[in-house]
């Protein structure tokens, strides 16, 4: 915990929502902010293009992509809106998603569907899952001759499930269907190689599991698909009188949106360095073991069930409290107010899950505190 700025009085088991930034990375973030304010004109007009290019090269290397295929965005919601509004989808077209997708990104496609007339199809992936192949087969049942785009999470937010996106991207390419993967929870939690993954488009946060400052994310577009992408915000990078001339139009169109604070983007290389030095395979495995411990111990409480086999989740896991008939918001509030445990209680379909996250700062004592709290709060007299 000493490496982070987290409140030591809070048991923080919710890294998955917004992440947590290490002190050294946050100091670098503040250094960039001070550099910006020292001489804004010099920084924004003369230095920023080169600084962003260097940061892009480093994050692209970390994710197994080419530097000219990646731009920084505030978050995956921004990238999802960009694709939903860019692609030439009409009344005869369908966008296929799963019923595990993050609400804000799903809303982006549903809103665009209202404007353009295409249809958003949600394909169910039932829980518990049996194998990656079974997930891919279940999802593929939603594909029709009208399917033009597949939008799918790499690791789902509500259900903490790794989906077999490489398999699905390969099937989609063979069928002539575009793919966009929401990797909000993937980089930093699992290894990501975008060239091998095979998606046409990919978006991710850097502020979650990569532990960069809030408001830093990436949007990847394969070079041969970039002509399909229009900027969500038209600014100086789009017109003939460009403020900066960069490597290609994809970067020009999407990188300069007007005056903004780029400090979070420029800090991503420091977060990558911190990841490489601190978040070793051993640290990731320890975090995963702590999550497994939480899931296994909770399942020993009468009425609490497991959701996924261990192989399907990493540093986030689910505790199914549906049978306890609890009020999700009330339970979340009690866990925080009485026990100072910050953890999400999620409604998904007709089920209620507690999603536990672990990172370098998590201890077995944190897990034991959660289990004790659940034993008390979910006892017959409280449930």
UniProtKB/TrEMBL annotation:
Regions crossing the membrane: none
InterPro entries: Aminotrans_V_dom, PyrdxlP-dep_Trfase, PyrdxlP-dep_Trfase_major, PyrdxlP-dep_Trfase_small
Protein name according to UniProt: Aminotransferase class V-fold PLP-dependent enzyme
SUPFAM superfamilies in the cross-refs: PLP-dependent transferases
The entry's keywords: Aminotransferase, Pyridoxal phosphate, Transferase
GO molecular function annotation: transaminase activity
Gene3D superfamilies in UniProt: Aspartate Aminotransferase, domain 1, Type I PLP-dependent aspartate aminotransferase-like (Major domain)
Top-level taxonomic group: Bacteria
Sequence ranges assigned to domain Aminotransferase class V in this UniProt record: 27-370
């Amino acid at each position: 915990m000493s490496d982070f700025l987290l409140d030591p009085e809070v048991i923080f088991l919710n890294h998955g929502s917004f992440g947590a930034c290490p002190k050294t990375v946050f100091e670098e973030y503040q250094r960039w902010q001070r550099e910006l304010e020292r001489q804004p004109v010099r920084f924004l007009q003369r230095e920023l293009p080169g600084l962003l290019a260097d940061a892009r090269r480093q994050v692209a290397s970390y994710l197994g992509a080419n530097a000219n295929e990646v731009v920084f965005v505030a978050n995956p919601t921004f990238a999802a809106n960009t694709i939903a509004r860019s692609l030439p989808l009409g009344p005869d077209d369908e966008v296929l998603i799963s019923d595990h997708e993050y609400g804000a990104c799903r809303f982006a496609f549903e809103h665009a569907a209202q404007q353009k007339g295409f249809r958003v199809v949600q394909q169910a992936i039932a829980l518990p899952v049996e194998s990656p192949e079974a997930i891919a087969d279940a999802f593929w049942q939603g594909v029709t001759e009208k399917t033009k785009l597949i939008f799918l999470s790499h690791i789902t937010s509500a259900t903490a499930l790794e989906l077999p996106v490489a398999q699905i991207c390969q099937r989609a390419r063979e069928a002539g269907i575009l793919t966009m993967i929401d990797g909000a929870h993937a980089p930093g939690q699992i290894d990501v190689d975008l060239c091998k993954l095979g998606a046409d488009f990919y978006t991710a946060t850097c502020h979650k599991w990569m532990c960069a400052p809030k408001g830093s994310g990436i949007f990847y577009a394969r070079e041969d698909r970039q002509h399909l992408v229009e900027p969500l915000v038209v600014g100086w990078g789009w017109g003939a009188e460009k403020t900066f001339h960069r490597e290609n139009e994809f970067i020009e169109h999407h990188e300069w949106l007007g005056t903004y604070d780029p400090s979070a983007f420029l800090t991503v290389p420091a977060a990558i360095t911190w990841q490489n030095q601190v978040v070793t395979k051993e640290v990731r495995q320890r975090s995963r073991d702590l999550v497994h411990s939480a899931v296994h111990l909770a399942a020993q409480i009468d009425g609490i069930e497991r959701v996924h086999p261990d192989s399907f989740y990493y540093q986030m896991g689910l505790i199914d409290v549906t049978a306890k008939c609890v009020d999700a918001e009330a339970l979340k509030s009690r866990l925080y107010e009485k026990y100072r445990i910050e953890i999400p209680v999620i409604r998904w379909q007709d089920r209620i899950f507690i999603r536990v996250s672990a990172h370098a700062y998590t201890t077995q004592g944190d897990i034991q505190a959660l289990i004790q709290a659940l034993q008390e709060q979910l006892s017959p007299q409280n449930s």
